Amino acid sequence: xxxxxxxxxxxxxxxxxxxxxxxxxxxxxxxxxxxxxxxxxxxxxxxxxxxxxxxxxxxxxxxxxxxxxxxxxxxxxxxxxxxxxxxxxxxxxxxxxxxxxxxxxxxxxxxxxxxxxxxxxxxxxxxxxxxxxxxxxxxxxxxxxxxxxxxxxxxxxxxxxxxxxxxxxxxxxxxxxxxxxxxxxxxxxxxxxxxxxxxxxxxxxxxxxxxxxxxxxxxxxxxxxxxxxxxxxxxxxxxxxxxxxxxxxxxxxxxxxxxxxxxxxxxxxxxxxxxxxxxxxxxxxxxxxxxxx
Length: 293
What we know:
Elements: E1 20-22, E2 26-29, E3 42-43, E4 46-54, E5 56-61, E6 64-69, E7 72-76, E8 81-87, E9 92-99, H1 100-105, H2 119-124, E10 127-129, H3 132-150, H4 157-179, H5 189-204, H6 211-217, H7 222-233, H8 237-255, H9 260-266, H10 272-283, H11 287-292
Antiparallel strand pairs: 1-2, 2-9, 3-8, 4-7, 4-9, 5-6, 5-8, 7-10
């Protein structure tokens, strides 16, 4: 069974019993040897926590490779691209998956596509070691949540899970806040512009690849927007737009059966030829060559 199917309603997956879940709402599992993990990249539709309890696992997040070892936690955000690489023979771990709908129902400060206030911190720090107290806490919440999912007679199952998830999420947010270096609690004007730009980009990357399009929506000049983004991220607006569109193109090429023509249409390119030139200019290879590499 593929990790990205833990949120599906279908039962036509291999070893369905290895995952305890409520349809596309919530899931927990720890039997990695019984869960067949595909190695094609795919976009997360929810929030995934992975605690490594033994051995090592290598994963890709937004096409950057990370290795987690015993005592590490990885957090994959909604909208990020996850790819399983490999794990050691002695690997074991626990996973907690929360749909964005559950996070919203739980009343937390969610990380939905349009609400990414912690985006910059977690985007650059998706994997980190945790202390024994946090490991113990993770195990406790995992056990509580799985027990609730497995209880068929629990009429308040969803409500209880919502409260547990809300508490767990706040615990994790508190830990990250203490562990990671932070600037002022209030975002600077430049950071706010950068956050809003990234939010718009994730929403409109198919609509436009023009810097002016995003600058207009932010009531800024293209020059000022690019200079601000360069100061915060090291890249100008055009580069960030190209990076994000390219990321989506790579996912579709590697994880779908869509033709090159269909992908070019999906990403709103004028034609397949223009998409091919765009892709090759950024990567040095044609889309077909990348797909087969």
